[in-house]
């Protein structure tokens, strides 16, 4: 698993998981509660992959079951961040049959969604793995799921861009328009932000790149630039200030990411691994 993939602590995640369980269980699991005479009835199940992909979210899935019954044992057979194949056993689960049946859907939903993101992220990363550039995610995430979706991109081999608006300063086109230009935006913001926040500026032309350089932006984003213009911008930035990091963004696809990476940028940001991912099909089978 990528060294960048760090799961938030349970004190942060538990309220999310409890909310999802409450949504699914409602006033009670009518089927399970009437089927089982005792909540201590033991059960054993396996998680099985039904499609190839990268596994993510197993610890979160385990926590779902353990919130229902702390004695449930969820043993991963496949390691987080590794490839799975159809028919492969992903995990073995032992414990209260009631907890297994009641938590099945929520746990699977979480793992299937996160594994889908990790899988598509990995495909993107493979396209540029031999080049000195890194794929980063964006803030285009499902409301309420950002921490976990960004965890999944890291499992797939990307690194996280800012988690929220308080992580760093990113001056985008609408900010530039509101301020009356890049120079005014950087000058005004630098006078008020706390140390050590960095300033990133979104640029769409070589003229904007020059202005961002003149006003000592820490990171310059080349947004929706043609590849040739992007290459010129990279050369300009490297010649004037080698400390500045360069990010490419905008309409990055599996077909274009290689050409973008070859321009010499440091980072390529894309929302696609999250917004265009397909859930990885997993199922739970009682034994």
UniProtKB/TrEMBL annotation:
Gene3D superfamilies hit by this protein: Aldolase class I, Quinolinate phosphoribosyl transferase, N-terminal domain
Biological processes per GO annotation: NAD+ biosynthetic process; quinolinate catabolic process
MF terms (GO), sorted A to Z: nicotinate-nucleotide diphosphorylase (carboxylating) activity
This enzyme's EC code(s): 2.4.2.19
Reaction(s) catalysed by this chain's protein: nicotinate beta-D-ribonucleotide + CO2 + diphosphate = quinolinate + 5-phospho-alpha-D-ribose 1-diphosphate + 2 H(+)
This protein's record includes keyword Glycosyltransferase: yes
Pfam families reported for this sequence: QRPTase_C, QRPTase_N
Lineage top rank: taxon: Bacteria
Residues of the Quinolinate phosphoribosyl transferase C-terminal domain: 117-285
Keyword Disulfide bond applies: no
Domain spans labelled Quinolinate phosphoribosyl transferase N-terminal: 32-112
Binding site for substrate: 105, 138-140, 162, 172, 202, 223, 249-251, 270-272
Metabolic or biological pathway: Cofactor biosynthesis; NAD(+) biosynthesis; nicotinate D-ribonucleotide from quinolinate: step 1/1
InterPro entries (UniProt xref): Aldolase_TIM, NadC, NadC/ModD, Nicotinate_pribotase-like_C, Quinolinate_PRibosylTase_N_sf, Quinolinate_PRibosylTrfase_C, Quinolinate_PRibosylTrfase_N
Record keywords, A-Z: Glycosyltransferase, Pyridine nucleotide biosynthesis, Transferase
Gene Ontology CC: one annotated term: cytoplasm
Binding partners and assembly: Hexamer formed by 3 homodimers.
Protein family: Belongs to the NadC/ModD family.
Functional note: Involved in the catabolism of quinolinic acid (QA).
Protein name: Probable nicotinate-nucleotide pyrophosphorylase [carboxylating]
Originating organism: Chrysosporum bergii ANA360D
